[in-house]
Amino acid sequence: MQKKMQLSLTVRGSGAEMVSYLIAKNPDNLYDRNEKDFKVRLFYPVFTKEEVQFVIYVKPDPIDLVRNSADSYDITHYINDREFAVSSLFITTIRKALGTALNGKPDEAYVEWVNHPFEMELAFGPVSTDLRDHELVELFEPMDYKVTIQRGESNIRDKSTARFVTIFGRQTVQNALKHVSILVPVIDNYKHYFLDEREVEKLERYGEGWLESHPLKQMIVKRALRFNALISQSKYYEKRQTNYSQKESPRIRLNDLRYEAILELIRTLPEKDSIVDLGAGEGKLSVQLGFLKGVTEILSIEPSNKARIKAIERFEQVNAKEGYVEPQSLAGSLFYFDSRLQNKDIIILCEVIEHIDEDRLPKIFDTILNDYRPKTLIVTTPNQEYNVLYEMEENMRHDDHRFEWTRAEFVQKVKEWTLNSPYQISIQGIGEEHPAYGHPTQMAIFRREEGR
């Protein structure tokens, strides 16, 4: 069976047929469009004067998703279910098709129906989320929805992790679509595209009239915008010193917290003109480095051509932004000397070293500290002690990790690497701290001593 993500909206009652005018889609014609690597289709399984249902689904082409990639033989692309989950990617892909309804601008003859509430049932899925079922319910209940959640079938476990959500209530079509446009990415908690000020504008436009009074407003804002620089721009954001209750916990992704910690650290450094993102992957950190004031050069170093292609596409999406310094994507490796990396202000290794055989690290750090000689080196890696809180069946967080160190082990390794190097070391944690196990991520900052 082909995988697809879908959303259906069913309205009942007098005037139900007006939905076709509100979304500007003729029930006699199949809406069929290609949006980048996805096929978007909208059709009406039911269409009467008293009941109308439309279904919009998105079907990714897994071949197109990796076409033009130098590593397209990598079979993991064909089994990556994130491309098949209702997510921020899904909402972005269907937004054009539902733009008339979202903006409340049908043909003039039907404008009066924009504010007409219908008895409706809106269903979407599959979703993949870190939220529990009761938390999903709490996102929709304040808008007077009733919520049901079903789990998909699985051939490998008792219950599938994929969930299908249906909300019931009396709403206008526009408001219902605004609600899911904001809350589906919040549920997903993963952005498939670069975030900038347009995300703030979108949140304020689609959140108007309901988000102001939502009891989980701060959670929604934080998961929708993700980064402090954007969160603080939102009119919905309320700076508070008190701790969040269990119900309102924002649970920002750890990867975002790492980036935020690295960016905040760099902002405090006096010398940050040139930065090397070593092992940059798809450029998610590199692209954010380009917005830091005082930075004039960013080298985004990555050995995988597949990842570099995605990074270059990410850089091109924002290279017209004012004040943005576009990173330079270069093929490179930790395993051989590269004169292009010498004497830079900052080198970053963000979640890289644990993917390398442990016995190769002394030589790598000797090269970085004594040959490249950055003014500051930033290294992050998992804290193995924290894994007990994740209740994992495996010993490590990722099957490609060659090791994960405790805090004491990391301190010992850092001391060994700097025995013959002129660097002062400080170590700090990233993420929510546990009194016994520390932080989920540990970060070492190496600062070269002046005059050496």
Q: Give the number of domains.
A: 2
Figure out the total of helices: 14
Helix content: 25-40%
**Low-confidence parts:** 63-83, 241-250
Order of helices and strands: EHEEEHHHEHEEHHHHHEHEHEEHEHEE
**Helix- and strand-based class?**
alpha/beta
Key descriptive features of the protein:
452 residues; alpha/beta; c-terminal autoproteolytic domain of nucleoporin nup98; Rossmann fold; 2 domains; 7-stranded antiparallel beta sheet; 14 strands; elongated
Question: Would you give an account of this structure?
Answer:
This protein has 452 residues and is an alpha/beta fold. It has two domains: 5-193, Hen1, N-terminal domain (c-terminal autoproteolytic domain of nucleoporin nup98, 2-Layer Sandwich), CATH 3.30.1610; 254-448, Rossmann fold (3-Layer(aba) Sandwich), CATH 3.40.50. It has 14 helices and 14 strands. It has helices spanning 19-22, 62-66, 88-94, 99-103, 133-140, 173-188, 197-207, 217-225, 228-231, 254-268, 284-289, 305-318, 361-372, 407-417; strands at 5-12, 31-35, 38-47, 51-60, 118-127, 146-151, 163-171, 274-278, 297-301, 328-330, 346-350, 376-382, 423-430, 441-448. The strands form two sheets. It has a seven-stranded antiparallel β-sheet with strand order 2-3-4-1-5-7-6. A seven-stranded mixed β-sheet has the order 10-9-8-11-12-14-13, with helices on both faces. Helix 6 crosses helix 8 (217-225). It starts with a strand and ends with a strand. The model is unreliable at 63-83 and 241-250 (pLDDT under 50).
